Amino acid sequence: MTTISQLSQKTKDLSLQSIQIELKNPNGVQEGYQDFAKELPALSRKRLEKYGIDLSKGYPRRPDHIPIFLDEAYKIRNRPNPNYIERGLNADPEKKALFGAATEVVNLTKYIGTEIVGLQLSDLNEQQLDELALLIAERVVVVFRKQDLSPQKQLEIGEYYGEVEEHPLTGQAKKGITVVWNKFNRGGPLIKFQRGAFAGWHTDLDHEFSPAGITHLHLDSTSETGGDTGFISGYGAFDKLSPSFQKFLEGKVAIHKSAHVYYERDDILSGPKHIEREHPLVVTHPVTGWKSLFVNPAHVVRIKDLEKEESDLVLKYLNEVYAKNLDIQVRVHWQPVKEDEGVSVIWDNRISQHVAISDYNDQWEGPVRHAHRVTSLSTPPVFDPNSKSQREALGWDN
Ligand SMILES: [Fe+2]
């Protein structure tokens, strides 16, 4: 016969077992190499082999230690980077070295996006990289096609722009080179048709102490059609607001959550939780000195010091301002990607939202989308009450 105390012990054992199973895998990921090398798209494999990325143990590799607890996740880069250099501040405002080397410089829309034609990112010297940083700060996103770029060079450029983020969970080609590949990221070719009004606009790594600044996505293989990336200017979103609403928002603080979840060490049963950090809701870009809205629908959970209903209402409106105004958006097509002709898109996460458009699927016939992302972390965002909006600074209303 089972006594009450034996039963209670059994229940405890059972719940401990189930907790342990969950703790092993709070975000559904495992450590070490993953067995996806044989599924690499042909163009990606050629590039990785050409540039000596070792695929013999598998591809890609997750970090050796996957954090499970919130306190350990908070400790990652929980400090300013004393060595950070804002490269765009050292640039020639006319960008003569960069533009002089290009055959063409094409603005994709009036307010956001520029394509540079006829030069290789791998050939840029420091003066040109500084000018590129200024161009990204001004135009938000810059596109380079027909790039023969090694993963190592992509990483080197990222290191020039700041401390390269080494994601504690994602698969990487090398430390700091995050793999963006559905077959691996989603454990299968699972891009689904989305019903409803969900778009997926977000900003990368805005929950970090020093959020993502210049971010470089390089596609070495893509589907024949689809998988475009949309970008929206935070400068433009701020300029869409009335001056008195702008004033209301300036100085407010927003709370940003991480994409991934972790457990409270002393309160595991309260369930997985996000990292949360506070940043100004209106930020001033350190290079341009222009004001930008710094919110996004994926990660910003509330505005500090407002009632929940007020915060929800304001955030909903601000995210609609981003999403509905096509004049402050640009849609980048990645095709065509050919052998030794990958496409690089470089943007600044401090002044933008973006989305990978879900109209491709790795299960369909033909080539598959595979990319490497290198993210340079910046500095904690600040708001300068004396700064101007982009329209104000450039005299667009005069
Ligand atoms: Fe992203």
Distance between the termini: 88 Å
Q: Structural class of the secondary structure composition?
A: alpha+beta
Please name the CATH architecture: 4-Layer Sandwich
Q: What assembly state would you assign to the polypeptide chains in this entry? A: single chain
**Main CATH class:** Alpha Beta
| Total individual domains | 1
Q: What is the average of the pLDDT values?
A: 91
> What name goes with the CATH superfamily?
Clavaminate synthase-like
Number of helices: 11
Helix content: 25-40%
User: How many runs of DSSP E, i.e. beta strands?
Assistant: 17
The largest sheet is: 9 strands, mixed
Bulk shape: globular
List of distinct ligands in this structure:
fe (ii) ion
Any low-confidence stretches, pLDDT <50, length ≥5?
none
- The CATH topology is Double-stranded beta-helix
Radius of gyration: 22 Å
Strand content: 15-25%
The helix-strand sequence is: HHHHEEHEHEEEHEEHHEEEEEHEEEEH
Protein name: TauD/TfdA-like domain-containing protein
Keywords: Dioxygenase, Iron, Metal-binding, Oxidoreductase
Domain TauD/TfdA-like: 106-375
GO molecular function, one term: metal ion binding
